[in-house]
Queue: 2 jobs
Job 1
Amino acid sequence: MAFEPKTPYLAVDGIINLQDEFGNWLGIVLIERKYSPVGLAIPGGFVEVGESVERAVIREMKEETSLDVVVLRQFRVFSKPDRDPRFHTVSVVFECVARGNPKGKDDAKVAKVFSYEEIPFDSLVFDHREILKKYLSDPLAVFKRL
Amino acid sequence: MAFEPKTPYLAVDGIINLQDEFGNWLGIVLIERKYSPVGLAIPGGFVEVGESVERAVIREMKEETSLDVVVLRQFRVFSKPDRDPRFHTVSVVFECVARGNPKGKDDAKVAKVFSYEEIPFDSLVFDHREILKKYLSDPLAVFKRL
């Protein structure tokens, strides 16, 4: 290819709101990362060439948490150059919902649901603390609406 | 670097709502592209490594239209693999406002404002027809709110 732009890496992350069989919101699914940087994180991963961001987030949620999510909306793009300590990664963050039991797989050692009141902000890696704070204060967040 | 993900290229595009000195909305700024694919387009360009998407759209709007825009919000991410005929490019589209006279520069042969009723949808390249149709039907679009 003659012209090859050099741009940041593109990732997706999914804020999964987990519901029980009675329609109650249990909280948000977080994973314990297997690779550096280790710590708790919203599940996510890199977008593949030829894949839309919506397909990417559905694939990554399945790979890391075993959950089949429904994507509700694009929440927001996070792009600060230092948000990923390895290199510049831009992430499209989605609001998702799911029902079932999360099970850590692939890059995730463990996947676990944390109630909205008990999110361990200080254990979150990358800028996921900022992402989740923004999400929890969003009046349109699904667990506040239904 | 040990681990190098291969992801789509990342771009930004700006839907610039142009206002006159009386506070009237004149329409949207489009450019005539100098390079392939030629045709009319929303101004935009690739994000540089080390640059946030917000800075990238401000820079690109200045380079292509000479306008100093104010970014109102992230509108939406467009990521269909075939949206750019050259390679897979994911674009973060912003809603912007500006006042002044657009002047084509850089990759833009001409920059011109089109009233909301006179957008030449059939001359638009990439998926910019779809982007602008979605934007014009958005109840939150700034020219409908103020």
Note: Chain A touches chain B through 29 residues (CB under 8 Å).
Job 2
Amino acid sequence: MKTFKLTIAYDGTGLVGWQRQAAGTSVQGLLEDAFSELDGRAVAVTGAGRTDAGVHALGQVANVAIAREIDPSGIVRAINVRLPPSIRIVDAAEAAPDFHARFDARSKAYRYRIWNADVMSPFERGYAWHVPSPMLDAGVMAAAARLLEGSHDFAAFQTAGGETHSSRRTVLASRIDRAGALITYEIVGDGFLRHMVRSIAGTLVEAGRGRRAASWVEDVLRSRDRAAAGPTAPPEGLFLVSVSY
Amino acid sequence: MKTFKLTIAYDGTGLVGWQRQAAGTSVQGLLEDAFSELDGRAVAVTGAGRTDAGVHALGQVANVAIAREIDPSGIVRAINVRLPPSIRIVDAAEAAPDFHARFDARSKAYRYRIWNADVMSPFERGYAWHVPSPMLDAGVMAAAARLLEGSHDFAAFQTAGGETHSSRRTVLASRIDRAGALITYEIVGDGFLRHMVRSIAGTLVEAGRGRRAASWVEDVLRSRDRAAAGPTAPPEGLFLVSVSY
């Protein structure tokens, strides 16, 4: 048995998310079916983290162990032909036998994309949250975003139903950038609570509407109350960009 | 009657192109149906140029005359609600009564996108031509592209069936840029022959494969022979970016 580290990109449109579910098409389910067919036995694929229905990935990471003698480039070719074009293994590399995509992850980077114009771009449908006028104040959003950097209790940005006991996380970077109608939010952290990036995005948009000062996000953080934060932004704007080990 | 200049973006995936056809969904057909419903009479919409099936537009331009009293922002709202989300009027402006989107156009800008990596990105399906390895030589492609700038007879880059008598055109800019796997070709010209951008893109890729020197495109130009050029690149990589007046 050899263990491989897989880097996977997927367009989450129409998928139930990363995790295999009783019904619907999942990335994990499609990968496990493809690897099981390749290896002639039931194969488990473990991801660095779950992504929700409709969420995309540029660099999800997973581990898999294969009995059959095959090299990494062979895995990329053999699995990609068994997957729909919306899901691609973009890289495979042999890893230590005990490599675990989830437990060994040191940080993850997410991107949240917002299309802030009255008319939605046909090319951003499914890949950005459409927020019509007024024009959001990206300066206020950027200042608010920076206040989330550091170690904090992010309970206010967590949807009930998450798996973890502590809601303390360290955010290494939290940045807003605007280019025309497109506002991009990039966040890097050592771990993320359920719906954390999407509820932060919803909160930053509230700040950008000009009704709140940037410092309001500190009040939200301190409240540890989900009701104090903004709405959970829709899944189609969210991308898992990369996982670091 | 007031005449309006419309700027239109569309995702050409699944469309038969700009022009109304006997069968299939066209941008012109959907726009004319929407304007006719709005104005309560048969309304014609004239585009700056046809785009083929599967070709996209960021800034197609069209003219339309409306009897009903309505302002430009009212047109944007009223027509967009009658269109599928793959087609959006991004701007409308009142124009001179004799404004003609096609005859008055001074230049057009097109972009052709190429994804040059073994694994296709899930997010580029339908928006770029997938050219797997070997890695194309973007330097050779850029040098070849520059040789097309100026006034030339582009007969070698024309598919039979075009409407025009002369195949002489002036190319104002013809540039290649590479960022990772994505190669972008930008061309600005005073007019374009049928399949001209796509046959140039196919020819530049041939040059990028390293089998031809950049100067080969001058031989192709001089030949005036379609068979001397590279293949016609697929429609999904092509975007009509803008039309200048």
Note: The longest strand of chain A covers residues 168-179.
